[in-house]
Design a protein that fits this description.
This protein is of the alpha+beta class and 274 residues long. It folds into two domains: 73 residues, Arc Repressor Mutant, subunit A (Orthogonal Bundle); 186 residues, Beta-Lactamase (2-Layer Sandwich). Helices cover 45% and strands 19% of the residues. The chain is built from ten helices and nine strands. The strands form two sheets. A six-stranded antiparallel β-sheet has the order 6-5-4-9-8-7, sandwiched between helices. The protein has a three-stranded antiparallel β-sheet with strand order 1-3-2. A hairpin with a 5-residue loop joins strand 8 and strand 9. The longest helix is centred in the C-terminal third of the chain and has 26 residues. It comes from Streptomyces ureilyticus. Keywords: DNA-binding, Transcription, Transcription regulation. This is Helix-turn-helix domain-containing protein. It holds the Pfam family IclR_C.
Length: 274
């Protein structure tokens, strides 16, 4: 966040401490002091203080040279997940869908400019990317992200696209705000999104939005498949109908429980970014 945009209550040291935690990921499970300082744009002295504080609190382990997160960091997200009943409602339906189509399926919400996986039922088929609950991707390049973004107000879509990193991830990635804006309009009209090898070569994905009892889009469910096994047409013909039926059952349960908007609220009020 730019310094001029910060409110008087903003605690920069807290922001930096969270940045240190986020420096660790699946590709970088272990980091040196220099790695953390460079990733977070901190001095070595500042990075050392943050890391050793996290060690004292039990969130980081070190052997004296390398640092890694401990399972205790899961506590930081547990309060949100334990109070957020949408994954609990969706998971039985995802189980049934996966058993029917023999492909993985996930539930995602919008968090800042990313989508975050909050429930996932995998199959034994392995995709290149390792995806688990908590995995994040830029929203504009994913099927789940696009079906959520497509239902935001036009001015909010414009604001998000203006600040998005539109560098192509593959040769097929839509890499201009104009092309993405047109695609989001199409997704809004048709009610689903298919992303064809834009996030990763060889990966196709279809997603459908999940609405709460007020009709607001609060999440999305997707099915990713190998492009070699599934054409775009077969995804639309064979996978979209059971996916739509699954989401309809999830939405019926949401109407019964009265759950409204936690995913929507998270996307608009959280300060979390990649």
């Amino acid at each position: 966040m730019p310094a001029e945009a910060r409110a008087p209550h903003f605690v920069q040291s807290f922001e930096r401490g969270l940045a240190v935690i986020r420096a660790f990921d699946a590709e970088h499970p272990e980091l040196t002091l220099s790695d953390v300082a460079r990733s977070c744009e901190l001095t070595r002295a500042a990075a050392r203080r943050f890391l050793l504080t996290l060690v004292d609190l039990g969130y980081v382990h070190t052997d004296g040279r390398m640092f890694r997160l401990t399972p205790r960091v899961l506590e930081l997200g547990y309060s949100y997940l334990s109070s957020f009943t949408l994954p609990e409602i969706a998971e039985p339906h995802l189980d049934q869908l996966v058993a029917q189509i023999r492909e993985s399926s996930s539930l995602c919400v919008l968090d800042g400019d990313d989508i975050v996986y909050v429930a996932r039922v995998p199959t034994r088929r392995i995709m290149t990317a390792t995806i688990t609950v908590g995995t994040r991707f830029p929203a504009h390049v994913t099927s789940v992200g696009r079906v959520i973004l497509a239902h935001l107000p036009d001015e909010e879509i414009d604001a998000r696209l203006s600040r998005a990193d539109l560098r192509p991830l593959t040769s097929r990635t839509l890499a201009s705000a104009g092309a993405l804006r047109a695609e989001l309009r199409r997704v809004r009209r048709q009610g689903y999104a298919i992303v064809d090898q834009e996030l990763e070569e060889g990966l196709r994905s279809v997603a459908v939005p999940v609405r709460d009892r007020d009709g607001e889009v609060v999440a999305a469910v997707n099915v990713p498949v190998h492009a070699a096994r599934n054409s775009v047409e077969s995804v639309r013909r064979d996978l979209l109908p059971p996916l739509l039926a699954t989401v309809a059952r999830i939405e019926a349960d949401l109407r019964v429980t009265g759950l409204t908007g936690p995913a929507r609220d998270a996307s608009r009020h959280t300060g979390t970014h990649r």
